[in-house]
Every structure is written in C-alpha cells, then in structure tokens.
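Exercise 7.
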Amino acid sequence: MNVIIYTDGGASPNPGLGGWAAILISPSHGNFTKEFYGAEANTTNNRMELTAAIKALEALKFPCDVELHTDSQYLQKAFESGWLKKWQRNNWRTSSGNSVLNQDLWIKLLDLAKIHKISWHWVKGHDVDKYNNRCDELVQKARSEY
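Solution. The predicted structure, written as tokens, is:
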C-alpha cells in the first residue's frame, strides 16, 4: 500500500514548548486523509521534527511504501545523504567527534525504516505546499492546546 506523509515540528523558544504534526494520505483509498498532532515541554525543533516522522510511521498498521515529506533538511539528509550510516559506523559520533544529538529518536526511526520502504522528500517550509502549511498550523495548534 502506498502512503504519502507530511510532517512538521517546531519549538518556541528553541528549546522550549514544542509541537509536532503529521498528515497521512492514502491515494488507494480516495486520498483519505488523517491528521494528528501533539506537544511536549522543554524540547527542540529537531526533536519535534523527528517525533512527527516517528508518530506518522508508527500509525501505519502494516508495511507500506511511504513518500515522507518534511521541511527538515536535518531529517531528510540524515537518510538521503548517508549521515545515519556514518554516525552508526562512528559509534554515534559526528565527524567532529561529538555525540550525535537525538540518538534515541534516530534509533526509533531506523527501526521503523526497516518495516517500511520510505522515500524522504524535502519541501520548503512556509511556502506553497498546502500539506506542509497545514502541518505547520497543526504544530501551532498543538502548542496552543498544551
């Protein structure tokens, strides 16, 4: 089954109160759409971006072909530019020798990527993509309802 996912996350201030959001679209079911979101205290933009992807992938009931769209280059490039493979080879150290931030969330994402066939797509945030803009609205809603 093919699924299109849009995700977003943010914190303000950074670090501070954060929110994440995801939209799942099922083309094979008439573009059925499901939106969900949440918030956390004392977090960062990057943690919320990763959390959004985790929550979206965890919502899938069985293995899927996923097109995941994010405005986070941190998330997209970690998979598409091989950063995660390098970090793992270096025992979760960056090229400068520092510990990789958010390792707990990266490990969850790697486990989920073993279940699903995921293609990672970067979209420009706060631009013309209606689903990315909707995710941003949901992030703000999550933060305001916290």
